[in-house]
Amino acid sequence: MTGGVPNEGTVPTEDGLSRTWTPPGPLDLGAVLAPLRRGTGDPTWHVGDRGALWWASTTRTGPASLRVSARGGQVRAHAWGPGAHLVLDGLPALLGAADDPSGFQPAHDIVARGQRACRAVPQGACGRVWDVLVAAVLEQKVTNREAWRSWRQLCHRFGSTAPGPVPQGLRVPPDAQQLRAVRDWEWHRAGVDGARRRTLLAAASVAGRLERAVQLGGTDGCALLQHVPGIGPWTAAEVAQRAWGDPDAVSVGDYHLPTIVGLALTGGSLDDAGMLDVLQPYTGHRHRAVRYLKAAGASRPRYGPRMPARDYRSI
After folding, report:
1. How confident is the model over 210-261, as pLDDT tens digits?
2. Domain residues of the chain, as ranges?
3. Residue 5 pLDDT > 90
4. Where are the beta strands (DSSP E) in 31-122?
5. Full-model pTM
6. d(C-alpha 226, C-alpha 137), whole Å
7. For the domain with range 11-99, which CATH number is right: 3.30.420, 2.60.120, 3.30.310, 3.30.160?
8. Can you tell me the mean pLDDT for 65-85?
9. Strands, E, within 121-168: which ranges?
10. For 302, which of 15, 149, 177, 220 is 20 to 30 Å away at the CA?
11. At what angle do helices 130-138 and 144-158 cross, to 10 degrees?
């Protein structure tokens, strides 16, 4: 999905700033923005009346709240806070306007089915490293349930109230300065072990420089992120997929992904090397191929091994 009507005007109103944007084709707002949501209880998210979506985030100029809705082929957005201009300027990219699937050729029937299912779901790019990096580090080597619990606690206890006339409980994630002020026992209370805490603090100390990864993109952007101790290929890929919409960033090191890809494309489980080998025909679009696989229903078997859940608060 590329193009769409250019900025039709970011205008001040009595109720924050607003903008209207016309995407070039059908757009499933919820599905496009879903990768930015960390569980059903994510305090930075709210699903409002008539399908309107609320998202609170940090920006380089301060916190922002964004409300997005779609009707009649148009997207209408309102934003509040010091970062309102930035989130509205980034609205088309956030909703996948820069996603370019041209040149992608499905080599498997299941991938082709997923491609058809994703016609209204381009890959978005939020243009911001920090928020998605914090969430990705929290998800390192733990279950989603554990990571999302920690994300909720950090947002509630160390983030800030989202600006504007927002739904009750909407929170902005803690910025780098706020995260660096979290004391050791508070990390423990949030269920974050020492390794992930050290990684987050190391990232917070260079947070401004890490935002350059969005401009670099691709392998260079991932390499910049991996200069931070504790950030490896998996974390960098998870950030790349969301921050700059990288269509080739495969989450190497994921607990389930090689099995999902292997069963879907070969009928058997694979390791990371085998997964990359079978995805080789999609080089340049390997993450896109994985997205299409999942859209077509590919998943790990329910009887397969699960990552054990741990509660670091009791350790």
Report:
1. 999 999 999 999 999 999 999 999 999 999 999 999 999 999 999 999 999 9
2. 11-99, 130-243
3. no
4. 45-47, 53-57, 64-71, 74-80
5. 0.92
6. 12
7. 3.30.310
8. 96
9. 160-161
10. 149
11. 130
| DSSP symbol at 56 | E
Whether 303 shows a pLDDT value over 70: the answer reads: no
Q: Rounded CA gap, 26 and 23, in Å? A: 7
3-class secondary structure, 60: coil
* pLDDT-based confidence at residue 71 (cuts at 50, 70, 90): very high
CA distance 17 to 129: 23
Distance CA(179)–CA(297), nearest Å, equals 37
Distance, CA of 240 to CA of 210 (rounded, Å): 12
Reduce the DSSP state of residue 261 to 3 states and report it: helix
Angle between helices 130-138 and 194-205 (to 10 degrees): 170
Instruction: Give tens-digit pLDDT for 92-131.
Output: 999 999 999 999 999 999 999 999 999 999 999 999 999 9
Place of tokens 């990864």: 213
Q: Show the tokens assigned to 273.
A: 């090397």
> How far apart, in whole angstroms, are the C-alpha atoms of residue 62 and residue 129?
14
